[in-house]
Design goal:
6% of the residues lie in helices and 54% in strands. It is built from one helix and 28 strands. The strands form seven sheets. Strands 1-28-27-26 form a four-stranded antiparallel sheet, with no helix packed on it. It has a four-stranded antiparallel sheet with strand order 2-3-4-5, with no helix packed on it. The radius of gyration is 19 Å and the shape is globular.
Length: 342
């Protein structure tokens, strides 16, 4: 298997070629595809890589990790424009809004820190060491702790969200992908992508209480916990698969094809739609109803469209694109209106 960085470069190149071919054939995705492109809004900065995104529903702002520009870009969802770029977050990967604390947290792999940003002043208020190549971020409200994936160091760093002190370092035994909090169990789950495992962490003790084997996983990096359905959705960048893990039985119950090198997952809870964005630019869409998961289709949405975030209040999905006609844009999509039955 090629190293992840080479697979991503290859997938991005293939995705750009696929998108160019699709654009030459049609101006819109196939009519059966349940999404429509609503707008392309200019973003600030250079045509460099974007990473994770997070919405603060209290301020109606979208926070975007502009990895290639070393900034967190702040986008006003109501006015649909960039209002600020928070500088000094070198090689920013993960970003997470925590409205209850009035904070935005960002992982800076260039300095191996977790950076805390005030959600209103948009000023950096704290920096905390967070291992070697910090990436995904999860917040546990009751414990008041942040869990930061340390991809190269093979750990999760535990940080007090109020004092910004590092409380613990949890050895996970392999490269760590995304980390997510499950409000039902009260536990944190982390992808151990070089071992094909999902590690379960108890925030009361900051210890690993279970290691769940993921048959069929190669490079399990992306992660989304659907707490009501009791599913963990796992994107495997090594073999382009989405695994569905039943959190009640701790067994993989389904596996689906995705676009090349799947990365970020997001969900519209009211519609029950799960988005899987890929480095290739192809987006796979699934419907989750009760205990049933079914694919709704796949389409190339844009070059390097590997990041997605959904606003549950409006059902709009946002995809930062590195370069559309030479400049970065935020591609906004909406569900197509349901067609009346004949």
């Amino acid at each position: 298997m090629f190293p992840a960085r080479f697979r991503r470069q290859y997938s991005a190149a293939v995705g750009a070629a696929l998108w160019a071919a699709a654009a030459a054939c049609a101006s819109t995705p196939d009519a059966a595809w349940p999404l429509r492109v609503l707008a392309d809004v200019p973003l600030s900065g250079h045509a460099t890589r974007w990473d994770y995104a997070s919405i603060d529903p209290t301020t109606h702002r979208l926070f975007l990790a502009h990895l290639g520009d070393d900034v967190v870009t702040v986008f006003d969802l109501d006015r649909r424009r960039v209002i600020a770029d928070v500088p000094g977050v070198r090689r920013v990967h993960g970003v997470l809004a925590v409205p209850a604390l009035g904070r935005i947290y960002a992982s800076a792999t260039g300095t191996d820190e977790l950076v805390a940003i005030d959600a209103h002043s948009l000023k950096v208020v704290a920096r905390t060491p967070a291992g070697d190549y910090p990436d995904g971020i999860a917040y546990v409200p009751r414990a008041g702790k942040l869990y930061v994936s340390d991809e190269h160091g093979g750990t999760d760093s535990v940080i007090d969200a109020r004092s910004h002190r590092r409380l613990a370092t949890i050895d996970l035994g392999g490269e760590v992908g995304n980390t997510q909090f499950d409000p039902v169990s009260g536990h944190v789950f982390a992808n151990v992508q070089t071992r094909g495992e999902l590690a379960e962490i108890d925030p009361a003790t900051d210890t690993v209480v279970a290691r769940i084997r993921l048959p069929g996983a190669e490079g399990n990096h992306g992660l989304f916990i659907d707490a009501p359905a009791r599913f963990a959705f796992i994107a495997c960048e090594g073999n382009d698969r989405l695994l569905v893990l039943d959190l009640r039985t701790r067994r993989v119950v389904a596996s689906f094809d995705t676009g090349g090198d799947p990365d970020v997952l997001a969900m519209d809870p009211a519609l029950g739609w799960l988005y899987v964005a890929s480095e290739s630019g192809e987006v796979a869409l699934f419907e989750v109803k009760g205990r049933q998961v079914r694919p709704l289709g796949r389409a190339v949405l844009g070059p390097n469209a590997h990041v997605v975030v959904v606003d549950p209040a409006t059902h709009l999905a946002y995809f930062p694109l590195k370069a559309w006609r030479g400049a970065p844009v935020l591609r906004i999509t909406a569900p197509r209106p349901a067609r009346p039955h004949a």
